[in-house]
Design goal:
The chain is α+β, with helices and mostly antiparallel strands. The protein has one domain. 49% of the residues lie in helices and 9% in strands. Strands 1-2-6-5 form a 4-stranded mixed β-sheet. A hairpin with a 4-residue loop joins strand 5 and strand 6. It is globular. The structure holds zinc ion (ZN). Zinc ion binds next to helix 5 and helix 7.
Amino acid sequence: MGIPVALGGGGGIIGLILFVAVQLLGGGDLASLVPNEVSSGGGSASTSDLRTRCNADGAIEQYNDCYVVKSYNEINEVWTARLQGYQPPRLVFFEQGVATGCGNASSQVGPFYCPADQSVYLDLGFLAQLQSQFGAPGRYAQTYIVAHEVGHHIQALRGTTERVEAGSRGADAQALAIGLELQADCLAGAWSALANKAGNVTITDRELDQALNAAAAVGDDRIQQKTQGQVNPESWTHGSAAQRRSAFLTGYTAANPTACDALLPLR
Ligand SMILES: [Zn+2]
């Protein structure tokens, strides 16, 4: 979920790549997926394959990637209506590794957004592990992840990402980096509430819990505790579980992306 402005060059092994680019073309239903195939490496699934499969009855319940595409479309539908000049990011599914405008990435990076090619990269394996490894069950946990990455896209469109990079040469680099992440969490929360309000999607209490739980589950303290057995705040990049949960709630409660400006001391 990082924002790999500079992914370690050559760090990722490009293996089997499932490279699918999709975009929204009004309507927000799966039928609006546009075949815009980009494939690379060995195995690949085309967008038209995905569209055919995902438009079948029950596909969204059955296939996780179809559910993710549905969320992605719902997120873009709201932001397109709400934010002037908004253009949806590309959505790229990958496995193992992928070449991006920000360098090569392995699936160890997790889902991320690359400002250079304005694309959200989702490792489907990571999404499947959300429940088992991160303790973030429920499909809405995935919706939160997608909404967080699209939040980074909004930051790139607004020039926020660039301003953070410029500022990050100073002493406040870590605070700015964390602020950028918390703002993306907040934007995810604002989207959830806006979609709910507009009647695009009805979020249930259970789904809200899934999102809040997921935001906490990917907090730096939780991840460090799990992977290193200890917590080192000086190496945090995304904020604590409490901060991330709270950032999502800030956006959700306000139902307004403007409320998220306060989370990043820039401007
Ligand atoms: Zn992020």
